Amino acid sequence: MMKTSIYGALAGMIFMGVPAVAQETAPFGTDEDADYAAQLWEVMTGLGLVGEGAMQAAPYPGTDPHGMMLQTFYTDAEVAGHRGALVVKRNYGPEGVTVDEVLADPAAHLGAVTIMFRRAQDYDPETGNWFYAKYLPDGTLDRNPADMALAGLVGKGADAGCIACHQAAGGDDYLFTTDADLTVAVE
Questions:
Q1: DSSP secondary structure string, 14-72?
Q2: Is the previous residue joined to 94 through a cis bond, with omega within 30 degrees of 0?
Q3: Cα(134)–Cα(117) distance, integer angstroms
Q4: Are 102 and 69 in contact (CB under 8 A)?
Q5: Three-class SS state of 168
Q6: How many CA atoms, within 13 angstroms, populate the side-chain half-sphere of residue 85?
Q7: What is the pLDDT of residues 57-109, one digit of tens each?
Q8: Choosing a second label site near 74 at 20 to 30 A (CA), which of 41, 100, 117, 182?
């Protein structure tokens, strides 16, 4: 239970600086965003990226807001007839957790799963067409203090949130962890 409250507090801190007006009209958290995020979770489960028995990789040290230990996976996926690049980041904690502890019992330390999925070219070109979501370990969407689902264009036009942070990544790909070309060839 302590783990949940730590990550809930982190989610709250992420959105503390977002003005109330922006939260009321934010371009994320809609029913459509939540439905799309649910489809993504199903796809990720099928790929073995999330859920019981998910593949493992060597964790590496992280930082707020993602977690103290992270695992990141890069692939592509098909959702609702569109194939796009998918970045899945598993966020582990609490502070002080070690690589060995995460590998010995990943479920006990998983606080959240954050993803970026590159949607079609007309989704939101201004932000690289990335769809963001933050899931709790059971696949439900995390919510901000205004009770908005963290899925869609999270933080667009705001001072905090996914896009607000990721727009500072080098290059124009919104990614901090790699400069690899994540362009997916569509068949």
A1: HTTTS-HHHHHT-SB--HHHHHHHHHHHHHHHHTTSSSTT------EE--TTT-SEEEE
A2: yes
A3: 12
A4: yes
A5: coil
A6: 18
A7: 999 998 888 889 999 999 999 999 999 999 999 999 999 999 999 999 999 99
A8: 100
